[in-house]
Amino acid sequence: MGPGRVRVVLLGLGLLFLTLVGRALYLQVVQQDFLQNQGDARFRRSLVLEANRGVITDRNGEPLAISTPVQSIWASPDDMVPVPPDKLRKLAGLLEMPASDIAGKLADKKREFVFLKRQISPEVAAYVMALGIPGIAKQQEYRRYYPAGDVMAHVLGFTGVDGRGQEGLELAREKMLAGKNGSRVVLKDRRGHIIEDLAAIERPRDGQTLVLAIDQRIQYLAFRELKNAVEVNKAKAGGVVVLDGKTGEVLALANYPSYNPNNRRILEPEMRRNRAVVDLFEPGSTMKPFPVSMAIEAGKVTPDTWMDTQPYMIGPATVRDSHPKPAMTVTEVIQKSSNVGSSKMALMFAPEQMWTFYDQVGFGRSTHSGFPGEASGRLRNWKGWRPIEQATMSFGYGVSVSLIQLAHAYTIFTHDGELLPVSFSRLAAPMPSKRVVSAKTAKKMREMMMTVTQEGGTGMRAQVLGYHVAGKSGTARKLVNGSYAADKHIGLFVGFAPATDPRLIVAVMIDEPTGGSYYGGTVAGPAFSAITAGSLRIMGVKPDAPSNNTLIPVDQIPEIREDA
């Protein structure tokens, strides 16, 4: 080879070398970020390490909501090669999905991540992985399980498939229960297998345990008796609230109908309604203790003061009683549920004074329990009140409340005149309370309200063997299209026991009973009695009445009518 050819070859090799060096510099410097991103997109993956949601327990540590480990199957379509038909059929069978749906998800090569099926059992996930399909992987998640099912449904609510609270305390305490997910950055090969970790693993931080004030035993009892009352009275629905009369803790809250949060395939909106917290109603005669206690506190009457209880006119309207008597003592006004007597005591006050008292016991505003969707009730500004409206508000018309509000207001009678805050969480000590009436007035009210469950009272069916029981029945017509319906009622009984040293407040509401009677003492009183009796035994509360006392047989108790 001549010198000229050698120089040409060397020049060619030099140019080739310079080209390679230039290309290398171009790729390493100019195209570095692009190539790095392309490599990461194909082989680098950031995996979520899901935090375990916090457990919810009752006050005694019994689990009410727990998270069980499950597996979710996911795929990376851009990493996958066509799946053989036989394996696709097997995969579809294991996931209980049409093969066409799976094929459609895997065909979208623009997606780097897609869930095929979430929250399946670890056993099924193991069979899926045994198929050895490149690009398909499993990921551990947690599914919420509620051991009490429909009994606790309205208190706890439920979580969605992503593990976030959707309703109830699951939603209200989301931040506390959720914890914080961790992460793991890994390098995978083209078959989807993890080769190495590219960064330190960030461990998940599990959610905190939520200890409720609820006593699961009392909750079961309340739900059972409420369900029985709704079915026996052929009612539309019902609700019950049980409060600790000394702390304001919610020991039980139940609604019927209910639903199973573990299986929500059939879930009607009416089944999800937490009626005890979100539904408003006019409370009828269960309001009468409040104007009476206001009048006693102001020194305008005593329990033995005689009241003229004959029907009387306020403008064109007549105020009357279902079982009229020409005169009653203030105690009898409570016992016999006199609209005339309670309205006359209410009219002893200026509208602003009565509004202030109702506001102090919590009507017209939320209890601040922290429960999502809690209704605040309705208490109109006193400046717009007419005398007839002020009169009817004394026996529960013209003011709207929720069942938990009504139970909350009765804490002034169980806690010596002080209004207790309501709490769904277990308390180490009672929260600060607010005085509404004196301890002396509260004691007098307890003594008067005891006569309601004694012979001649409207709530004799609410008696409890071995205990003095105090309370008030109520029957209210429902407002339908702007007028009160003659055939739609709410029956109520709210009371506490033992009356001499109250431990429990129980409020029962039966919505639209159609089983032959609709009076609160008849339809709600028996459920109150059963719930109170069982709860006192569960709590080990010492009887305050002779253990050999006898109750009036139910079939011998006359039904006493009340129109409010």
TrEMBL record:
Catalysed reactions listed for this entry: Preferential cleavage: (Ac)2-L-Lys-D-Ala-|-D-Ala. Also transpeptidation of peptidyl-alanyl moieties that are N-acyl substituents of D-alanine
Top-level taxon: Bacteria
Gene it is expressed from: ftsI
Protein name per its UniProtKB record: Peptidoglycan D,D-transpeptidase FtsI
EC number: 3.4.16.4
Function summary: Catalyzes cross-linking of the peptidoglycan cell wall at the division septum.
The keyword tRNA processing belongs to this UniProt entry's keyword annotation: no
Domain Penicillin-binding protein dimerisation residue range list: 50-197
Sorted UniProt keywords: Carboxypeptidase, Cell cycle, Cell division, Cell inner membrane, Cell membrane, Cell shape, Cell wall biogenesis/degradation, Hydrolase, Membrane, Peptidoglycan synthesis, Protease, Septation, Transmembrane, Transmembrane helix
Cellular location(s): Membrane
Pathway: Cell wall biogenesis; peptidoglycan biosynthesis
